[in-house]
DNA sequence: TCGGCAGAAATCGTATGCAATCTTTTCCAA
DNA sequence: TTGGAAAAGATTGCATACGATTTCTGCCGA
């Protein structure tokens, strides 16, 4: 999987920050697994693809590097991150710490509009599960992450929201690398249960369900080190 | 307070990343309050001060902007962040969520070397409290933050560690803006109590103490909006 | 055939130039 | 004096150029 094989919508050269737009495109591609972990993202290529100079492409890659989605090596370039099992565990440890609290905060702030937004989101999620094929699978992983992001938005703390954006994006990478099965339908059920608790204003229950939900996601991963770490490093694409 | 009044150690033009070195210098200056909130950080000036091109200075400022220490406005430039009371509350809400968990994780991983490091840190903290003068006050705030950063390092989760680095840095800004008194000596006592609990392996107690500690720090702030938000915005340096 | 070395090609790090945008100053009329 | 418009100045956004570093390639000797 090479970045040159991807097609990206043109960046509207309007007043918006173009580097940010490119970052968003690339992030989507990484989270959707259209760009595999380890793929090289050279400044020149990214620039050509989006029709901007290396300066702008570089800025976009720097942003992704801050988010942990891209790893940059001096004088070598940027690569889609290839999280280690240990990193994967830390991602989920972080989520276990943060998301139950976010659920509690969100429970106290849910508006009818929020409930409606969640229902729309969950419907879409359900549709992707029903469909078959790799495209649907990708959309499904994305939608599953969107549930958590929506929750973070409702919680109303922009700092935590940004942390969650990073954690959800990194989780997608981790699931891509270490995911075992299609536990997703189970996750969908759990999302619905969490929404019920939120709608009922039952913060405690929402929080507990969230904790279990994260445990379930992580339990579906196979985080055993497959071979000696030296070999793994050497093979790192 | 203008950035041009500051003196910075020269960046060693060696193999290290120069933008990163500049970011660290600027972050220290912001956290130490040598650069006041609202101070303009123009690319050209930063570049001249550190003897690098605007390209490198720009990269450093972009990093600080990601950390929330610097706010950038398109076509206008970068300014030391000026967090609103609401933002301040969110910083502390985030810390209340994360730090008790970090304390628990750290309690299970403390080595004798860690304990020694904490003791050294707390001694230094104590020294700054004893001293008088604005310089000592700055060092004291910095040292107080270092306690929390050390704890995050011991906890062993690099993701959470990075989150904490951001939160501690932003807290320094918030304290600079909204801090009322020298509650710091009280904070120092609390740090010592937390260390005792950690040393005893009492994770629950360490966690509870941490939560109270954060509450105390926030309680020392005066987060009332001083004037109409419109006026405040207008006066924003 | 294989390892390794030299040159070529690719890629990155950084400085600099130019256009676009914003800010400040100047100046004139009310 | 005050308001406002226009010019001058400063600063950013972006592209491009060039040296430095790394990677690739082809060739040679063992």
Automatic annotation (TrEMBL), chains A, B:
CDD domains noted in UniProt: WHTH_GntR
Domain HTH gntR-type as annotated: residue spans: 16-83
Pfam family, one: FCD
Keyword Chaperone: no
GO molecular function, one term: DNA binding
Keywords: DNA-binding, Transcription, Transcription regulation
Record keyword Zinc present: no
Domain of life: Bacteria
SUPFAM superfamilies: GntR ligand-binding domain-like, Winged helix' DNA-binding domain
PROSITE patterns: HTH_GNTR
Name the UniProt record assigns to this protein: Transcriptional regulator
